[in-house]
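Sequence in, structure out.
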Amino acid sequence: MKLVTAIIRAYQTDQVREELIANGITRITVSRVSGHGAQQRVEVYRGKKVIPDLIPKVRLEIAVNEDFVEKAIEAIMVGVKGDAAKEGQIGDGKIFVTTLDECIRIRTGERGTTAI
């Protein structure tokens, strides 16, 4: 079991979600987050250039079985049409894949891959 976490631009959320669903991945968690990496945005406030510290993004968390890890990554990055989250620019985001030791469905008590 793996946890695929993606940080993407907010306006790309619907496109990425549709690509995930098209690849058979329907259970995702979406959070609004702020942060910065190499991307910098310059705004003008009262005639003065200002670089905000934090940029709004969206974090997707997707728990998947081993068979769906590459499908999830491909759906997030490229998708079927080639226009999901990857624009080839600074600020496209990041994808993290981590190992899940345990998954438990609270309602039924199922554990492991069947609980996902």
